[in-house]
Amino acid sequence: MTLQPLLQEMQSLGALLAGRAMLHNSSHREGMVHVDKAQRVQDRDREGVWVGGALAPNTSSPFPPEPPGASGSIIPVYCALLATVVLGLLAYVAFKCWRSHKQRQQLAKARTAELGAHPEPGCRLYLHLPRQQQEEVERLLEASGQPDEGWQGLAGCLGYQADAVEIMARGQGPASALLRDWAVKEGSGATLRVLEDALASLGRDDVVRVLGAPAEGCSVV
């Protein structure tokens, strides 16, 4: 939401109120000049009139005396009104910003939940593959005649040292041990995309095709 229209509205309202205050002051000054002239006439009349040979004050003036403090009494009212309007507009802007922020958060959460329920193929985890598909990958890696293109080469691409590779080679199913250990250590980073890139660097496109093959019964946890 842009604040420019609201700021323009606040400026227009402030200018209107200021103009009204200036107009009132001008009218008040003109009235004061008129009252001042009348007051001088009234003062001359109040110097006295002769009633029955005696000097008595004149009370026939049509201008009542102005109460003290009347001048400028409307300016604080305008100032208070302007402050109230400005505070109201600021509260409205703050509320709209807060509501917009909450809506963006809700949309982001919904988008995250949608991606979690339907992840992209390359973002799926190796452990989420069906067991049958995992076994086919492991079989192809262990059947390689050249260690550099089999599970040993894959271990090097995944960051395993030689001593760790030797320990896995002593057990049964070294390819399965390697891939499961890698999936547990990497967690959410053990995606099919990372595994496919490592296999592609070894020239094992056949294993990459197995990883990318659609499998029925695949579920995402």
Overall description:
66% of the residues lie in helices and 3% in strands. By secondary structure, the chain is an all-alpha fold. Among the domains are: 30 residues; 91 residues, Death Domain, Fas (Orthogonal Bundle), CATH 1.10.533.10. A two-stranded antiparallel sheet has the order 1-2. Strand 1 and strand 2 form a beta hairpin. Helix 1 runs antiparallel to helix 2, helix 3 runs antiparallel to helix 8 and helix 7 packs antiparallel against helix 8. The longest helix is centred in the first third of the chain and has 43 residues. The radius of gyration is 45 Å and the shape is rod-shaped. It starts with a helix and ends in a 9-residue tail after the last helix.
Topology:
Layout: H1 4-46, E1 49-51, E2 54-56, H2 75-117, H3 131-142, H4 151-157, H5 162-170, H6 174-186, H7 192-201, H8 205-212
Antiparallel strand pairs: 1-2
Helix pairs in contact: 1-2, 3-6, 3-8, 5-6, 7-8
Main location: membrane
Membrane topology: Single-pass membrane protein
GO molecular function, one term: nerve growth factor binding
Brief description of this entry?
This is Death domain-containing membrane protein NRADD-like isoform X2. The protein is mostly helical.
